[in-house]
Description:
Layout: H1 2-17, E1 20-23, E2 27-33, E3 36-41, E4 44-47, E5 53-60, E6 64-74, E7 80-91, H2 94-99, H3 104-120, H4 125-130, H5 132-147, E8 152-164, H6 166-248, H7 252-275, H8 282-304
Helix pairs in contact: 3-5, 7-8
Amino acid sequence: MWFISLVALLAALFVIWNTFIIVQTREEVILERLGKYHATLDAGFHFVLPFIDRVAYRQEIREQVLDVPHQKCITKDNIEVDVDGIIYLKVMDAEKASYGINDYRLAAVNLAQTTMRSEIGKITLDDTFSERDAMNDAIVAELDKASNPWGVKVMRYEIKDIQPSQDIVLTMEQQMEAEREKRAEIVASSGERDARINTSEGDRQASILRSEGTRQKRINEAKGEAKEMELIATASAHGIERVAKAIAQPGGSLAVKMRLTEQFIDRLGTVIDGANVSVLPVEAANLKSFFEGASKVTDGVRSGS
């Protein structure tokens, strides 16, 4: 008797337990009645009919993050790269997500891989790094269009890594090294050219300054010489003028002649002494007598005056 009572109690508890369900805030529940879609239950406490209603699906309504595995892709210039990414999506319609497709997560990942291969094939290796945002937008647009019947909204897609093969990486490194050497040579040649230009310009300026200095020096020297000649000429003119005035005085002409005679005699004596001559020619002796007589006349004139 007590066994029957226990079975009845357990059956009652089982029936009561299946008359209500509790839905979490982060999910929505698809309720089927007799195997057919009946309602979508949101967060809260709900009563159902035991053995008639059943919970068919529980859908996550929070934004979900799905990892897209690595895959090999071929670029437009036939370079193999390894690409992976991340999908951010959200269930917008629990009914479509439950009945529109078997597994929307798997479908989204596979579609993202397919679209990624297609987008990578449209660009070259160099553009895969600069066109990352454009590829992300293209993949989101394609996924969003395909996932609309699933009741899923693709929020965004991000490429995590684009990794070329080791051979390509080595080739790129060699290319970059060659490019750096090329730029270094260009910079060095430009520096040498600028240095030569600066040196030649400096030499030209120095030559101009030297020539200007030489020209100014010559001008200054010429001016100095002209000034000197002018002063000498002026002094000579004044001297001649004074001599002329002296000659014009009484006895001036005779004094000039006497002065010239004395200078001639002195010079002649110096020349004779230097030549060690003791015997003079007749003309020189007569000339000497003449000058001695002239000297006496001069002395007489001076005494008389």
